[in-house]
Amino acid sequence: MAYILRKILHRRLLEISFPRTFQITLSKMAKSKFEYVRSFETEDKLDPRHWIVVALQCRNYDRFSEGQNLKRPNDLRFIQLVEASIKAVMEDFKELVLGYGFAGEFNFVFPKSTTLYKRRGPKLLTNLCSLMASSLVHKWPNYFGSEPLCFPPVIEGTVHLFPDDQALRDYMTQRQLACHYCNLYNTVFWALVLQGHTLEDAADVLKGTRESEQNEILFSKCNMNYNKEDDVFKKGSIAMRTWKQATVSGPDGLTTHRNHSCIINMYKDFSKDHFWKEEFLLEQPTKANAKTSYLKAFEKKIALLPHTWIVVRIDGKGFHKFSERHKFAKPNDDRSIELMNKAALKVMQHFPDVVLSYGQSDEYSFVINRYSKMERHGNKIMSSIVSLFAAMYVYNWNNVFENVTLEYSPAFDARVVLYPNNSCLRDYLSWRQADCHINNMYNTCFWMLVQSGNYSRREAEEKLRGTVSKDKRAILLNEFKRDYDAEDALYRKGTILFRHDCASSTTSLKTTFNLSYACDELKKGNSSNEAYSVVKEHTDIIGDQFWTERPWLLGTEQCAKTVDDLDNFSQ
Q1: pLDDT band, residue 486 (cuts 50/70/90)
Q2: Which InterPro entries does the record cross-reference, listed alphabetically (predicted)?
Q3: What is the pLDDT of residue 559?
Q4: Which of 76, 240, 427, 491 is a good FRET partner for 338, with 20 to 30 A between their CA atoms?
Q5: Could you tell me which residues come within 8 angstroms of residue 259 by beta carbon, excluding any fewer than 6 positions away?
């Protein structure tokens, strides 16, 4: 006790002798009475000193391949597209050391020492997931030419933490074995189809067969030797970061040698010691291990509580630089807003459990029905939504921006937040609209000062420092004869997308978070269905009027009164 008292006294004396001079850095988000809702957000940091593997899976890859008429069993163009996209992701995220992909699966490896984004799992996952999706769409014409991309892929992601080098090796070996088994089956299946078998007959022939039997069928019935197939099909694509020395000439004519990283592709065996001892060096000794079932325990899952509102908020990564690079109009670019709204609309059309979304600037929030029957897997939900959003952002770029070339693929990060009741959800949405109002007023005033030619950016920032809403309104009115309240509600209030009347439709409550269902409905032309009839407005959602006029959005509290009610809840 005496030791503790001495430590406290010593600290107090230091504070008296050397008063603190540092200031607390405040958040850049809008300050309002609704800001308490930030307390519902979680960091979800990953344990230190673990390998981080972000595993991405293209949902319904077979359906995607069929819709795009990809060559079976393998389309080299798509494989090259995947390799280029993986390389783009690894070039953007310099801390990635290894990537691996086959068919519709992509894996990215961060080293144990990474502190990127303070090791926040959702931020790592969604940034990689969105960039992979947008890269696939952006680079599609480079490999498929004039063949259109019918519908962008939706990518689902998970995060895995491996405490040692052996676990990492076992995981990568397991994924390569999955590639081998999948490719062997598909090779035999499509070879039988080419021989004249129907799809059903080919499936019956292969039903219950083992690896050796499939090899025998391929050799005896199709006259093909699987061992002679290309390694890129059998082993998948490995992307690895290496370091090379480059000679750089300085302004004084002197040359220096600097190390720079580059990404190389290879087709090696993860099961062999050579890769881990010669190519990708590990600190700890490892060996081939056939037992990999234990790896399931290392998946980092985010389980979401039932009967809570799920909000997935998406934010653009580095959009200040992105907007400057693509010369967005200031303070607001109608094309950018339209592009965001189109992407959000497609998300709501694909995922009927999303009942409401709100967007402003470079962010969008998607509200999922609190009684939805989807699998409440946080990582899969946020990755599916952010990947489709990013893909659609790129997919619609040329239609919206016309003659402006998209110079690089954008990325978005996302987080999932749970709100326990209607009041908290409303306060969250009010907070985001208040943020929209405060930021837009500042930006409108700032860019009017700069574009007038009388102020530099630094001078405009100094003039607005410490001002409140009344001061900014006065500047706009006195110096530029502009009434802020007369500005377009699109800029002042943001965009609200909501379903026309979900209360009278059972679709949104009885379907699962199922992409294939939504795609089928859209292909059948059911976009006018109640579940997909989405309304766009730019109105106030802080007051009560919006909600009282649309009671179906928040619904009523569901409470089980009988045993039958419990059965209905579990359906």
Answers
A1: very high
A2: Thg1_C_dom, tRNAHis_GuaTrfase_cat, tRNAHis_GuaTrfase_Thg1, tRNAHis_GuaTrfase_Thg1_sf
A3: 72
A4: 427
A5: 243, 244, 245, 246
